[in-house]
Design goal:
Blueprint: E1 4-7, H1 11-18, H2 20-23, E2 28-35, E3 39-42, E4 47-52, E5 59-60, E6 65-70, E7 72-75, E8 80-85, H3 93-100, E9 104-108, E10 112-117, E11 135-140, E12 147-156, E13 159-167, E14 174-178, E15 188-196, E16 200-202, E17 207-211, E18 218-219, E19 224-229, E20 242-244, E21 249-254, E22 261-262, E23 267-273, E24 277-284, E25 296-304, E26 307-318, E27 323-327, E28 330-344, E29 355-360, H4 363-373
Parallel strand pairs: 1-26
Antiparallel strand pairs: 2-24, 2-29, 3-23, 4-6, 4-22, 5-21, 6-20, 7-19, 8-9, 8-18, 9-16, 10-13, 10-15, 11-12, 11-14, 12-13, 14-15, 17-19, 21-23, 24-28, 25-26, 25-29, 26-28, 27-28
Helix pairs in contact: 1-4
C-alpha cells in the first residue's frame, strides 16, 4: 500500500526536503524515541506491598496510585469505652506510648477488682483452695448492703484477684468473697479490698495511619481501633498507605511485587515524565562534522506501515564519547558512531522505543524552518 506522508512542516519545507537538489546537501541517520529524563518514586514509609496498581509502559497522572501498602491493624482486646485517645494520624505510636503510657485506653465493662486472700476464709479445707475462672458472690464486710458477683482471674499463693462483674461498691471498702450465692460464713473463701481497675492500655509499633474510633466510643472485643505502618512519616505528616505517582508520564519500571517488604526511601517505580521524549540517534564518525548543536532537523517516525509522520526537531547535544559497534565480519566491519540527541514535540501517537529517522535540512529548508519557529 502506498504510504501517505503526514507532516506539520509547511509545503515549502516539504519541497525543500524532498527535491533531489535539496537532498544532496542533507544526511539521515537512525535512532529511537527515548526519555530525556526520569523521575523516581520513593516509598514515603515502610511496609508490606499489598497491591501493585501499574505496569511498565502504563500512562499515569500525578497522584495516581502506584502501589498500596498493607497496614498493621490494632483491635480492641476487650469490650468497653474509649477513655483516652492521645495519638493522631502521622504520630509515632511508640513516642505517644512513651509520653502517655498508650496510644489509647479502654475502660472495660468491669471497672473494679478485689485483692483478696484465703487467710480470711472460713476454716474449712476446701475454702482454702480457689480456682482461676471460678464464679464468686460478693458482699461488703460492713453491713452487707452492697452485693454483686465476680470471677477469680489470678492466684498467687494464698492471694488471688477477683474481677467484679456486677454490683455497686465503694472504692477501698472491704468485701467478703463467697463460693456460691449464699453469704453463710461456711461459704466464705476470703476477704479483700475493692479497688478501681486500671483502664486497658493499647499500644503498637510504627506510625499511625488512621483511627477507626474516637474518644467516648463504645467498642466490642475485636473491633478495629487503628492502623499503622512501619517506620515514620516525614515531619509526622501522614501521607497514607498509597504510593502515588509524582508526575504525569509513563511508567518505565516497577520495583515492587505483592507481598514484598518495602523500606522507607526505597525506589518503588521510575517514570518517564510527560514531555520528556527525545530522539537518540547514531551518527557515523564520517558525518560528525556535518552536524552541530542547535541545527534544525526533520524527525520522521514510522508508527504503522501505512503512515510516515514527520516533526521539526533540533539537535540539543552530541555525545563527546564514541560508540564502537562490531560488524558481522568482526573488527574489519566495526563502525564508530556518536549519539546525537534531538529535541522535538511529540503527539498522542508517539511512543517510547519508536524507530526514528533524523534528516538534516539544506540551507533553504533551514531558513524556512527558522521562519516557522518565529
Amino acid at each position: 500500500m502506498k504510504r501517505q506522508l503526514k507532516t506539520i512542516l509547511t509545503g515549502a519545507t516539504l519541497c525543500a526536503l524532498l527535491c533531489p537538489a535539496a537532498l544532496a546537501d542533507t544526511i539521515s541517520f537512525t535512532g529511537t524515541v527515548a526519555a530525556g529524563e526520569t523521575k523516581e518514586i520513593y516509598a514515603p514509609i515502610g511496609g508490606t506491598v499489598e497491591t501493585v496498581a501499574v505496569e511498565p509502559g502504563q500512562a499515569v497522572r500525578a497522584g495516581d496510585v502506584i502501589a498500596t501498602l498493607a497496614t498493621e491493624k490494632v483491635y480492641a482486646p476487650e469490650s468497653g469505652v474509649i477513655t483516652g485517645l492521645f495519638g493522631q494520624s502521622g504520630d509515632s505510636a511508640e513516642t505517644i506510648a512513651q509520653r502517655y503510657g498508650a496510644v489509647l485506653y479502654i475502660e472495660g465493662e468491669s471497672v473494679y477488682t478485689i485483692a483478696a486472700s484465703t487467710d480470711n476464709a472460713y476454716n474449712k479445707t476446701e475454702n482454702k483452695f480457689v480456682h482461676v475462672g471460678e464464679a464468686v458472690y460478693l458482699s461488703c464486710y460492713s453491713d452487707g448492703a452492697h452485693t454483686g458477683t465476680g470471677v477469680i482471674t489470678a492466684i498467687e499463693g494464698t492471694d488471688y484477684t477477683v474481677e467484679v462483674r456486677s454490683g455497686d461498691f465503694l472504692v477501698s471498702e472491704t468485701v467478703n468473697v463467697f463460693r456460691g450465692e449464699s453469704t453463710a460464713s461456711a461459704n466464705r473463701i476470703g476477704r479483700g479490698t475493692l479497688n478501681r481497675k486500671n483502664p486497658t492500655a493499647v499500644t503498637a509499633e510504627g506510625s499511625i495511619v488512621s483511627f477507626a474510633v474516637a474518644d467516648g466510643d463504645a467498642v466490642q472485643r475485636g473491633d478495629l481501633l487503628f492502623e499503622t505502618l512501619s517506620g515514620s512519616f516525614d515531619g509526622l505528616y501522614m501521607s497514607g498507605s498509597d504510593i502515588l505517582a509524582v508526575a504525569d508520564g509513563v511508567v518505565a519500571q516497577v520495583n515492587l511485587e505483592q507481598g514484598a517488604k518495602l523500606e522507607k526511601g526505597n525506589v518503588a517505580a521510575t517514570l518517564y515524565p510527560e514531555g520528556a521524549m527525545r530522539v537518540e540517534a547514531q551518527l557515523e564518525e564520517a558525518n560528525l562534522s556535518a552536524v552541530s548543536v542547535g541545527d534544525p532537523v526533520s524527525v520522521e517516525l514510522i508508527w504503522n506501515q501505512d503512515e510516515e509522520v514527520s516533526y521539526p526537531g533540533e539537535i540539543s547535544m552530541i555525545s563527546a564519547v564514541a560508540t564502537a559497534s562490531e560488524g558481522a565480519n568482526g573488527d574489519q566491519d566495526s563502525a564508530v558512531t556518536y549519539t546525537v540527541y534531538v529535541d522535538f514535540t511529540p503527539d498522542a501517537n508517539t511512543r517510547y522505543g519508536m524507530s526514528a529517522v533524523v534528516t538534516t535540512l539544506d540551507a533553504k529548508a533551514e531558513e524556512e524552518f527558522s521562519d516557522e519557529l518565529e
